[in-house]
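Hi everyone, sorry if this is the wrong subforum. Our group has a chain we'd like a structural model of before ordering constructs, and none of us has done structure prediction before. Sequence below.
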Amino acid sequence: MRHIVDDVNNPLGRGFSLIIQLLILISLLAFSLDTLPDLTDAQRDILMYIEVVSVVVFTIEYIARIYAVEQRLKYIFSFYGIVDLLAILPFYLASGLDLTSARALRFVRLFRILKLLRYNKALDRFHRALSIAKEEIILFVFIATILLYLSSVGIYYFENEAQPEHFKSIFHSLWWSVTTLTTVGYGDMYPITAGGKLFTFIVLMIGLGVVAIPAGLIASALSKVRDEEDKGRLNR
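Answer:
Right subforum, don't worry. Here is the predicted structure as tokens:
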């Protein structure tokens, strides 16, 4: 069983992985098509059949993987195990709920796209890179959160009196902080005072670094993963 569900170095394993990948893409396409407003009942029935077939195959795959692995609990609570469960769980839960709740659960079906991580070496490399840079990324998120809060406080005190309708509180100022630190700048909230403009310039300069840091961290980690793979090939 394991040589089929978890080994792409043989014809059966390759065929199985290709079927699963194709089915993931078809189910995601069906999910998108189902949101079209002018579908006929027949078309919706076809999309429903695709969903049923997808869930049946994904369920068989999930059970087969549990059966094939030695440490079953470890797989069930692993990243891929949770993703595999989320790929099928909404269908079974939605069948016993009202329409509104079922629609909310359908969104969880998008987690199926994460199943592709298992079958794509580039995506797997990216996942490993994130694991390597995990501590640095957590530190960056913590620092970015502090900067977000401080910039909200700063712009509030600079602009509250001049624009009380936009910068009503620190919480209202958070939206300005997000768009400014990420250098998006939608223009719906902007400073008009001299102090606010100077403060915005400083925040924008910091924002350029905030955007660049995670890209650098991931690029460095990807390079490290690639070096490890190259060393592994040379040692074989």
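For your construct planning: The mean pLDDT is 80. The first helix runs from residue 2 to 5.
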